[in-house]
Write a structure and sequence with these properties.
Structural class: alpha/beta
Helix content: 40-55%
CATH topology of the largest domain: Rossmann fold
CATH superfamily of the largest domain: Translation initiation factor eif-2b, domain 2
Distance between the termini: 53 Å
Number of domains: 2
Strand order of the largest sheet: 3-2-1-4-7-9-10
Strand content: 15-25%
Radius of gyration: 19 Å
């Protein structure tokens, strides 16, 4: 019996700890399982059901860009299919191809980021980026151990799991409350964070990233972002939620989890093709 796509979807919707790359993998698995299980026999109905699924995937994590790219790939696959049977096969293949491409791009980006880490002894990160973890893994494979400052990253507290993952690789992880972690910025060699989305003017990442970037700049410490092309925010999605005007929150429930950071406050953007922006 195949994987129940509904169970995968429920887990995806409830996941508020994983980074954009892990969630993109989950979304691709959901699409593939859905395409194999959907019983519709008419193309019009299949298109309608696909749009409903893609809307649900995006709505679960509206700050993340990869589901938008997965949706574009799925729509293209469906447009080229002649009948529902061919469409289901094409959608499954598109989901697998999307993840394979994403995996290859993440590995390349992480290797570029690892090159920056080889000369460092102490770094800071923020939230739980799978691409940052992968860069740290490549460095650990070379027997180079780092001290990694991991802010707790509230709300959500993804820094706790990040610290556990970093320590499991053999690095020294220091988990600290967000404001306390900022005291380390004069001591670190660099800051390396991931991104949930990027666009022409900046990136979107976990709230707190902008404060870290600004203080790193004030102390003369580089702040790098490692990402992939599949995290580019698509213009047809409109203005990113993190860029939409909103009043200051009056409760933790109202707080935004993600924020926009302009490139002017960052040292550079590292992608699968190398440094895409830098001073």
């Amino acid at each position: 019996m195949g994987v129940d796509w509904r169970e995968l979807l429920r887990a995806y919707q409830a996941d508020h700890v994983s980074g954009a790359m892990a969630l993109a993998h989950q979304a691709a698995r959901i699409l593939e399982a859905w395409a194999q299980a959907i019983p519709v026999e008419r193309m019009e109905e299949l298109r309608s059901e696909l749009e409903a699924l893609l809307t649900t995937l995006h709505a679960a994590h509206p700050d993340m860009a990869p589901p938008l790219h997965l949706g574009a790939a799925a729509r293209q696959a469906l447009a080229e299919a002649l009948d529902p049977l061919a469409a289901r096969a094409a959608l499954s293949a598109a989901a697998r191809a999307f993840w394979e491409r994403l995996e290859a791009h993440e590995e390349a980006a992480a290797r570029h980021a690892a090159a920056l880490l080889r000369g460092a002894r102490t770094i800071m990160t923020h939230s739980r980026s799978g691409t940052v973890l992968r860069a740290l893994y490549f460095v650990a494979q070379e027997s180079h151990r780092l001290e990694v400052i991991c802010p707790l990253a509230e709300p959500g507290g993804e820094g706790r799991r990040m610290a556990e993952d970093v320590a499991a690789q053999g690095h020294s992880a220091v988990l600290l409350p967000d404001l306390v972690a900022l005291q380390w910025l004069p001591e670190v060699d660099l800051v390396l964070v991931g991104a949930d989305a990027w666009e022409a003017e900046g990136i979107v990442n976990k709230v707190g990233t902008r404060a870290i970037a600004r203080l790193a700049r004030a102390f003369g410490r580089p702040c790098w972002v490692v990402t992939v092309s599949e995290k580019r925010w698509l213009p047809e999605a409109g203005l990113h939620p993190a860029r939409r005007p909103a009043p200051p929150p009056r409760s933790a429930e109202q707080a935004r989890w993600f924020e926009f950071v302009p490139y002017a406050e960052l040292t550079g953007l590292i992608r699968e093709d190398g440094i895409a922006l830098g001073k």
